[in-house]
Write a structure and sequence with these properties.
alpha+beta; 4-stranded mixed beta sheet; 2 helices; 27% helix
Length: 109
């Protein structure tokens, strides 16, 4: 991959520079908005009015949540409420910069 340094960790390559850093902010914002709308589209198709996400992978997909450490992957410390219509609420986040999140609350876990 041009412009990115690859080192090795044992037998596995480790990428030093993430590819996302080369994608313009506008395109990233469009991608994140698309993902959230895709979730809501599937909710409409399944007649679901509220989606609750707790998996680090799901949180990353839905609102680009990046606060999970590797050891926390099996111990949910944050969760996200996505209503079919209305504000998206993130519980348990220590940062407040997620553009697709409308409201933040402390975690009750």
């Amino acid at each position: 991959m041009a412009g990115s340094a690859i080192s090795t960790n044992g037998d596995y390559p480790v990428e030093e520079n993430l590819v996302l850093s080369s994608i313009p902010d506008k395109q990233l914002a469009e991608m994140h908005s698309y993902r959230l709308e895709r979730i809501r589209q599937q909710m409409r198709l399944q007649d679901v009015s509220l989606c609750v996400l707790a998996s680090p992978v799901s949180l990353r997909y839905a609102v680009n949540f990046v606060e999970y450490q590797m050891f926390q992957a099996h111990i949910p410390t944050a969760y996200l409420f996505i209503p079919l219509e209305g504000p998206v609420t993130l519980f348990g986040a220590s940062q407040r910069h997620y553009s697709l999140v409308d409201d933040y609350c402390p975690s009750a876990l």
